[in-house]
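Protocol step 4 of 6: structure prediction from sequence.
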Amino acid sequence: MALALAGAAICLSAWIVLSSAPAPLRALTSAAARCPTPAAASRAQTALHSARARYLTESRGKVIHADLRQIAHDGILLRALSTGNLRAALAAANRQLVRHVVRIRVLRGSQVLLDANSTSFDVGGSGMELYAPNGRSLGRLQITVQDVIGFIKLVHKLYAADVVVRGARGQMRTSLPAAARLSLPRSGCTQIGSHRYVVRSLNETSFSGEPLTIRLLTAA
């Protein structure tokens, strides 16, 4: 379940959350011709395809569009934006941080008018234009229904893969604490402690437009 409270501390012993990771150490990459085995390579490829599909579902699926439409028809939010009362608009947006919604922004061009739960590190989202009753444009509404750690937990649970997500601005989340400081290959095999993993990678974009590199580690 995605976390909807701004600045909430993640303090679970099985999960690492680093906002600025130290200089990475290099993982031991296996050169063994037998790694990955055909079975391990197949598992890794399945996890990669599944994680890519999950990211698409979280950022553009039916759930997010249902929430998007509901928020876009919030009369209090629309009235506050119409009158330029951004404090009231932000309060209205904060009240909508329920169900699955973890972050809400309204932009006018490149200007961010409001950003509810602004410190959250999130997967991509969806948006739609907002209009006043007289048809005047009020800006573009953007929301997301999943943060990065929630995405990692889903992939870890559903597809038996550990995950490392790094943002271009230095944020990092992972389900595998031992991988937090390692410089992992984009593809291939790597040794972490006593375990060998197959690594596969994909690139995505966060809610705020930050490039993300997502590495999946499955048993070799």
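Step 5 (inspection) to follow. The first strand starts at residue 16 and ends at 18.
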